[in-house]
Amino acid sequence: MENADLDRLRYTYKEAVDHWIEAIRAEEDLVTPDHSMMAAEEWDRAHFVEQDAQDVAKAARQAYADELRKLLYNI
Q: Can you say whether residue 10 is alpha, beta or left, with left for phi > 0 and alpha for psi between -120 and 50 degrees?
């Protein structure tokens, strides 16, 4: 694999982590003293978005790590 391909995988991973962090902060912002049903539903939706972002970040990390292992260890 070329360095440009590894750079692209690394960049994809970094972007996914940045998006995940944004999703965490969005969920955190919805933790308010408002105990209404509407607030709870918004908070739940934000949690599902955060979970999806985490899954994307983990997959991007795995793809990058797999290619690094191939390059560095021929595994």
A: alpha
pLDDT, tens digit, for every residue of 16-54? 999 999 999 999 999 988 899 999 999 999 999 999 999
Q: Is the pTM value of this prediction over 0.90?
A: no
> How many domains does the chain fold into?
1
Domain that holds residue 18: 3-73
Number of Cβ within a 10 Å radius of residue 13: 20
- Alpha helix (H) residue ranges in the chain: 3-29, 37-73
